Amino acid sequence: MIQVGDTLPQSQLMEFVDIETEGCSLGPNPVDAVAASAGKLIAVFALPGAFTPTCSAKHVPGYVQHYEAFKSAGVDEIWCISVNDAFVMGAWGREQQTAGKVRMLADGSAVFAQATGLTLDLTSRGMGLRSNRYSMLVRDSKVVALNVEGPGKFEVSDAETLLAQARAA
């Protein structure tokens, strides 16, 4: 399992962007996790699935709500990572009103989740291999704080916990 002090694994996430901007086209775009976090302070949170109850009602809204506080604490970007495809993450981002606040990054084949060692097997619930629920603070591609939830829990990966760690970093 990834630990504090480790570098993010070399992996490619995918991001769907609704509006074409300079250097960013519509449709799924690759995001190299290490390159995209180089020289930045990133608040990362991961969860089992888009549109799921806890993720939609608590996890994502907390990060959207505290966006300005994260920026004030020196965080450059907030990333939400889930084992879903980029189209689902884009639709969920629209529904959660994350535009300009939280990057909704797809780990469609669970490559990032497996590389971090933070997987959750939900095959018995019809969801297959997913990401565990966690948050981490990443500075210049290295993990400086890591908060991994126990099975079925939402206690330490919330926005408030990671925000306090960002303020202390």
Automatic annotation (TrEMBL):
Residues 2-168 form the Thioredoxin domain. GO terms for biological process: cell redox homeostasis; cellular response to oxidative stress; hydrogen peroxide catabolic process. It comes from the Bacteria. One of its GO terms (molecular function) is thioredoxin peroxidase activity. The active site is at 55 (cysteine sulfenic acid (-soh) intermediate). PROSITE patterns: THIOREDOXIN_2 (PS51352). It catalyses: a hydroperoxide + 2 glutathione = an alcohol + glutathione disulfide + H2O. The keyword ATP-binding does not apply. Keywords: Antioxidant, Oxidoreductase, Peroxidase, Redox-active center. Its EC number is 1.11.1.27. GO terms for cellular component: cytoplasm. Thiol-specific peroxidase that catalyzes the reduction of hydrogen peroxide and organic hydroperoxides to water and alcohols, respectively. Plays a role in cell protection against oxidative stress by detoxifying peroxides. Belongs to the peroxiredoxin family. Prx5 subfamily. This is Glutathione-dependent peroxiredoxin. The lineage of its organism: Bacteria, Pseudomonadati, Pseudomonadota, Betaproteobacteria, Burkholderiales.
